[in-house]
Specification:
With 112 residues, this protein is mostly helical. The chain is 71% helix and 0% strand. The protein contains four helices and no strands. The chain starts with a helix and ends with a helix.
């Protein structure tokens, strides 16, 4: 139970970073932290004590295996997060080229 709470606290750290930081790089890192927390939570939901890997073979019962669906969802989520992070970094670099700052409060003032 403590692991679920720690995972939720990690998610809250990401939300805190998004809401309070003014630097685009820190906001992007906070979004990454939130994604890692969500992936960890999916894996934790699928965990079972004394279970085996989900590959069928002789002498292994399906009821003893870990559910492979959350693992596949996390792999898909990691790929989507990578694409999203790459897009956010490209956007941040373009904003830096135009405004010469990563501070979003200054970018809002420099409309143009």
């Amino acid at each position: 139970m403590i692991v679920y709470l720690l995972c939720f606290i990690l998610f809250l750290v990401g939300i805190y970073g998004i809401l309070t930081k003014r630097d685009l790089v820190k906001i992007i890192l906070s979004i990454g932290i939130m994604g890692y927390a969500a992936n960890l939570m999916l894996i934790l939901f699928a965990y079972r004590n004394n279970s085996i890997y989900p590959i069928l073979s002789e002498g292994k019962a399906v009821s003893q295996m870990v559910d492979p669906l959350p693992q596949a969802l996390v792999l898909t989520s990691i790929v989507i997060e990578l694409g999203t992070t790459a897009m956010l970094v490209a956007l941040a670099l373009r904003l830096y080229e135009k405004y010469k700052t990563f501070d979003i409060t200054k970018i809002r003032r420099l409309k143009g």
